[in-house]
Amino acid sequence: MAEAELSHLGVAEDEELVYRSALRSPGLGAEALALAVGMDANDVKVVLERLAASGMVTVADDQGIVATDPFVVTERLVESRLTELQAEIQRVIASRHVVNVLLDDQRDGRRQSTPDGVERVEGADRVRARIDELAFFAHHELLSVQPNGPLSAAAIEGAREADERALRRGLVMRTIMRTDALDDTRTAEYLAELSARGARIRTMDGPLERMLIFDRRTALLPIDPRESSRGALIVHQPGMISSLITLFERFWTAAEDLGQEHLTETERQVLKTMVRVEKDEAGARELGISVRTYRGHVANLLRRLNATHRAQGVLAARDRGWL
After folding, report:
1. Domain limits for position 311
2. Lowest-confidence segment of 1-10, 42-51, 106-115, 158-167 by average pLDDT
3. Among 240, 257, 274, where does a domain finish?
4. Quick one: what percent of the chain has pLDDT higher than 90?
5. What gap in Å lies between CA 233 and CA 223, rounded to an integer?
6. The pairing of beta strand 118-122 with beta strand 141-146
7. What is the pLDDT of residues 268-313, one digit of tens each?
8. DSSP-derived secondary structure letter, 194
9. pLDDT: which is higher, 235 or 117
10. Which of 257, 278, 300 delimits the end of a domain?
11. Is the distance from CB of 263 to CB of 205 less than 8 angstroms?
12. By the 8 A CB rule, do 66 and 60 touch?
């Protein structure tokens, strides 16, 4: 007997044996078929009942055992198996709610062990594991502030899979980076990659506070902002979360979208002065800088705006959102 071919379609070994023998020897009766397959006649009769019930054979007293056409049988078996698999998949998907029950148990345990709503996690590996866990079970939003400039190759590699998975699941991801992070080619390319996948990324100068906020209900902060390797504080306390979200939104409002060309504060002031003041001497005097320096800023702005004169530059600046 050849190796079983129909087991993955839900056909038992003895059923396949009898069916294939009926294909090779059409018209045999049950006893003759039992001799052909080397089985007890009563056992063959039981198998034939199952095969007849599934439509794989027809048992006729005057014509013996007639095997159903293999094309018909295969299509029926495949359709039946697919139906079973779809039902199984639905049962598995429906069981996902169990994770919420388990997470509630976990959160209750952590709240009992951390009555102040702050969990302390030490060690880089444990912190990384908790970040992965929180990101994996976030359903809506991930907010992050990265205050230390360029990302290392290891940091990018460690974050890439989790970031891509979060974006595929439809999470809203908003990230704030220091402006000088874009000076690093590797970091700039990674941020552009995330932006292309749907993440919203902004950059800003000045001091930032490292934080990760998951679904506006859990936040992660460094134990020591100057030495993040010491570990992290995981905050569950609603009042503290609300304050951190307010701080994040303040940073976000002050930051610039990735891809928006950065202007220094002096350049911003020169651009605004260009709109109101015609003479360079008056503009320089208003800003408290030399005329030469003022004209140098104007020329640089016009070059960056691809403008040949100031009126065209002002219109281009408005189009870019610089004004």
Report:
1. 265-320
2. 106-115
3. 257
4. 16
5. 6
6. unpaired
7. 888 889 888 888 999 899 999 898 888 888 888 888 788 888 888 8
8. H
9. 235
10. 257
11. no
12. yes
Please write the tens of the pLDDT for every residue from 210-231. Answer: 999 999 999 999 988 777 778 8
What's the predicted TM-score (pTM) here? 0.51
State the Cα–Cα distance between residues 52 and 124, nearest whole angstrom.
Answer: 64
- Angle, helices 153-168/124-136, rounded to nearest 10 degrees: 20
CATH number for the domain harbouring residue 242: 3.30.870.10
In a domain? residue 238:
yes
| Beta carbons within 10 angstroms of residue 259's beta carbon | 11
CB 44 within 8 A of CB 34: yes
Instruction: Quote the CA–CA distance of 107 and 154 in Å, as a whole number.
Output: 31
Angle at 271 between CA 257 and CA 195, to 5 degrees: 10
**What is the enclosing helix (H) or strand (E) of 57?**
strand 57-60
Measured CA to CA, the distance from residue 83 to residue 78 in angstroms comes to: 9
